[in-house]
Design brief:
This protein is mainly alpha-helical. It is built from nine helices and no strands.
Length: about 180
């Protein structure tokens, strides 16, 4: 039969209280600077259903990466193409920057800036984008005080790279050729 807590040695009870206190502290949602260390993921937004463009509209994409990226179907097609080539880090970085620019809360902006830096900018990042040393230095300097324009220089470099390299490959791909038929 169980004799209850009184049967346990005093040191065990003290240890149990310590553990309970520590677990209670960890389970509380932080409301201080610790938010920067352990960010809470936001609910992912469901992308709107993209309508297939007319062949005429799709034809405009071969001359304008901007038009391609503004069209939800074009963006999805371009991203699928880049994924098929195992080179989706550039479009993912561009999209993360676009999402970052829409952030209003300074706390969320700092969280997103940290995540973008860790995922795409820092050396040996899991999805490291190919930017020059100067651009990386400017971006790191901008992140001291995050603002909506913190990643502008890097985003422009990646846009130019996609425009010069990825867009011509996409236009020659079956993904695109099916759209213009």
């Amino acid at each position: 039969m169980c004799k209850g807590l009184a049967a346990l040695p005093h040191t065990c009870l003290e240890r149990a209280k310590e553990i309970k206190t520590k677990l209670g502290t960890l389970l509380q949602k932080p409301d201080s600077a610790i938010d920067f260390i352990i960010p809470y993921p936001e609910k992912p937004e469901k992308p709107p259903k993209a309508q297939k463009p007319s062949p005429e509209e799709a034809l405009q994409w071969r001359d304008s990466l901007e038009k391609l990226l503004q069209n939800p179907y074009g963006l999805a097609s371009f991203r699928s193409f880049l994924c098929s080539e195992f080179s989706e880090e550039n479009i993912e970085f561009w999209m993360a920057c676009e999402d970052y620019k829409k952030t209003k809360s300074p706390v969320k902006m700092a969280e997103k800036a940290k995540k973008i830096y860790e995922d795409f900018i820092q050396t040996e990042a899991p999805k490291e984008v190919n930017i020059d040393h100067f651009t990386k230095a400017v971006t790191m300097k901008n992140l001291v005080e995050p603002s909506p324009s913190s990643f502008d220089t890097a985003q422009k470099r990646i846009f130019a790279l996609m425009e010069k390299d990825s867009l011509p490959r996409f236009v020659r791909s079956e993904f695109y050729q099916e759209l213009i038929k």
